[in-house]
Amino acid sequence: MAKSAQAIMKTASSRRRFLTSLSLAAAASSLPAAAPAGDGKLRVICFGAHPDDCELQAGGVGAMWAERGHQVKLVAVTNGDIGHWREAGGPLALRRKREVEEASKILGTTVQVLDIHDGELEPNLETRRQITRLIRAWRADIVFSPRPNDYHPDHRYTGVLVQDAAFMVGVPFICPDVPPLTRNPVFMYYTDRFQKPNPSTADIAVSIDSVIEKKLDALAVMESQFLEGGALGHAGLLPRTPADKPKRVAAVRASQSARYLAIADRFRKELKQWYGEERGAAVKHAEAFEICEYGRRPDKAELKQLFPFFG
Ligand SMILES: [Zn+2]
């Protein structure tokens, strides 16, 4: 039997009341408290598949926002527990959590590692909900993720999961335990080298020269990944004596520095568009990002407000 319109409205109204009280209770009990809204500070959340991906891709701009008092959260969607050639499992996950916490202290960011096994991430409903809740709880203005075409399945599915959340963050009756966002964030992709089906482009390119040493310091504390080589490393990378260690650390810093020099060269045209001919030509290290079509689409004036780095 069909319900009357009045009965349906009454049910909907009590459901909303129930969900509102549920959302307040859950937000208070299970999610980290976000800073008060409306304080004029930007709120940025970065997703990476492993504990080091966000730091590699957006550690520079992350540190630059943090220096200006904005709130930046880095989320590793897996715990990194197979990301080493010699060790694995719980002890490695804990080691990598400590490493990203140390890196975040240097960058001025906040970090969270989700307890999903490395190499086993799936774009399933449960994790889509988890990502949706994290973006809402952070009340994000900008959300970063990898693109969904990438060599590593965890990177691919992190991209898919964040894309899947891009619309859902505003829909009130999915994950009603966390209040929906009333304004869709800007979603952006990290840059990568993959060409098919389409190469990554840069809607914005940012000089990270002012924080490059800080970024290299943050990467250096993740010894399991850089000094020791991560999943595809080997014993030959390890310093033989304590006196050899500074040489190995210097080699790691040089190779990481080269990565951001290459990004600046690759996106020189965009750097000049953002900084002007002379300043753009002088940028040494850069990070670059592409707007995802599924979130809010900012124009150049809004991008300048979101990335307040161009003076
Ligand atoms: Zn990764």
Q: Could you walk me through the main structural features you see in this protein, from its secondary elements to its overall organization?
A:
- The protein is built from ten helices and seven strands.
- The protein has a domain at 37-205 and 288-306: 3-Layer(aba) Sandwich (Rossmann fold).
- Helix 4 (125-137) packs across helix 5 (153-168) and helix 6 (212-220) crosses helix 7 (245-266).
- Helix content is 45%, strand content 11%.
- The protein is an alpha/beta fold and 311 residues long.
- The protein has a seven-stranded mixed beta sheet, sandwiched between helices.
- The protein has helices spanning 5-30, 53-67, 90-107, 125-137, 153-168, 212-220, 245-266, 268-275, 277-282, 300-306, and strands at residues 43-48, 71-76, 110-113, 142-145, 186-190, 204-207, 286-291.
- The chain starts with a helix and ends in a 5-residue tail after the last helix.
- The site of zinc ion has 5 residues, from loops.
Helix and strand arrangement:
Layout: H1 5-30, E1 43-48, H2 53-67, E2 71-76, H3 90-107, E3 110-113, H4 125-137, E4 142-145, H5 153-168, E5 186-190, E6 204-207, H6 212-220, H7 245-266, H8 268-275, H9 277-282, E7 286-291, H10 300-306
Parallel strand pairs: 1-2, 1-4, 2-3, 4-5
Antiparallel strand pairs: 5-7, 6-7
Helix pairs in contact: 2-3, 2-6, 3-6, 4-5, 6-7
Bound molecules: zinc ion (ZN).
Low-confidence stretches: 1-36
Distance separating the two termini = 65 Å
Provide the CATH top-level class of one domain. Alpha Beta
The dominant shape is: globular
Ligand catalogue: zinc ion
Please provide the count of β strands: 7
Mean pLDDT: 91
CATH topology type of one domain = Rossmann fold
Query: β content, as a range?
Result: 5-15%
What is the number of helices? 10
Rg measurement, Å: 21 Å
Strand order of the largest sheet: 3-2-1-4-5-7-6
CATH architecture of one domain: 3-Layer(aba) Sandwich
Instruction: Summarize the helix and strand pattern as letters.
Output: HEHEHEHEHEEHHHHEH
> Main β-sheet, in a few words?
7 strands, mixed
Question: Which structural category fits the helices and strands?
Answer: alpha/beta
Oligomeric form: single chain
* Portion of residues within helices: 40-55%
CATH homologous superfamily title of one domain: LmbE-like
